[in-house]
Specification:
317 residues; eight-stranded parallel beta barrel; alpha/beta
Length: 317
């Protein structure tokens, strides 16, 4: 699997595909989680994404389960050598059931908890999981910078932020000499929701043209989540979410099916290849519940989209 360097001069190399660990310890049991992790690393994958809040919304979950399972796997493996670990803060449950936010106390406490559950001394990437407009940006950014200077975090990212907010916080960090956000994580896939449609998943923010332009023009690194839309592309038992149902989707699905047939690939594999080879090039996060599902995704790492077929996909809208 190919590697690429993160933006920002950290020197961190990430794998072409990133493994999403959100279901580990809740909807995916520990034994299966270990098997998925082993297979991912065996195939050359290095980059694993989690969060402090995964997955409190699942019955029986309270948050931290994913990090705990990852920590047990790392201990069994004998350490984190060769791996890139990313986690997040800001979307855990706070007072009165609201998001915990990005106040300095929250960041410090939650970072300590993530490191403890993972059994590591530092994170390669630490994300603000969602915006917190109730906490001054200067307080949030200064605390993140503190974590970097103390060696507990190598580089910083922002997830589910509007493009203008990302640009604004980066400008503030530059003015103060603080570590800026250089990694972006946003919801993105080949199919696009209807314009001006509110996503039903709380906290999700879809990448728009403005954000993609910011990533491209400022040489940021973008990771994309929900890349395969929960199986919608290939599974008959996973109907297309209502907010994706519009004429543009029909044209895109038709083009996707044609390209997949010509390449002898699955639609999922074509979507992942389209993401990794686009402009900007994106690191897809793949979330799976079995080794078989992972193997389908891993095959996309070797799938090259010819220029003509990529153009056909791009122009179907």
């Amino acid at each position: 699997m190919r590697q690429r360097e993160l933006s920002g001069g950290s020197g961190i190399q990430v794998s072409q595909l990133c493994l999403g660990a959100m279901p580990f310890g809740t909807t995916v049991d520990e034994q299966t989680s270990f098997a998925i992790l082993d297979r991912f690393v065996e195939a050359g994958g290095t980059t694993i994404d989690t969060a402090n809040c995964y997955s409190f919304w699942v019955p029986g979950g309270c948050g931290g389960e994913s990090e705990t399972v990852l920590g047990r796997w790392l201990a069994r493996r004998g350490g984190r050598d060769g791996l890139v670990l990313a986690s997040k803060v800001g979307s855990g449950l706070g007072a009165n059931g609201a998001a915990e936010g990005l106040a300095p106390r929250v960041i410090r406490e939650q970072l300590a908890g993530s490191l403890r559950r993972l059994g590591v001394d530092y994170l390669d990437v630490y994300y603000s999981h969602r915006e917190d407009r109730n906490t001054p940006d200067a307080e949030t950014l200064a605390t993140f910078h503190e974590a970097v200077t103390e060696g507990r975090v190598r580089t910083l990212g922002a997830s589910n932020h509007a493009a203008w907010r990302l640009a604004e916080t980066r400008a503030l960090a530059a003015a103060q000499g603080w570590t800026p956000y250089t990694v972006v994580q946003q919801r993105y896939s080949y199919l696009l929701p209807r314009p001006a449609t509110a996503l039903p998943e709380g906290g999700h923010v879809h990448a728009d043209d403005e954000l993609l332009d910011l990533v491209r023009s400022r040489d940021l690194t973008m990771f994309a989540y929900s890349t395969l839309l929960w199986g919608t592309y290939t599974r008959a038992d996973k109907p297309l979410p209502e907010h994706y149902q519009h004429p543009g989707t029909e044209r895109r699905l038709r083009a996707l099916g044609e390209v997949a047939a010509e390449l002898g690939a699955t639609p999922n594999q074509v979507v992942l290849s389209w993401l990794t080879g686009g402009d900007p090039a994106i690191v897809p996060i793949v979330g799976v519940s079995s080794v078989a599902q992972l193997d389908e995704c891993l095959a996309a790492a070797d799938l090259e989209l010819p220029t003509e077929l990529r153009k056909r996909l791009d122009e179907a809208c």
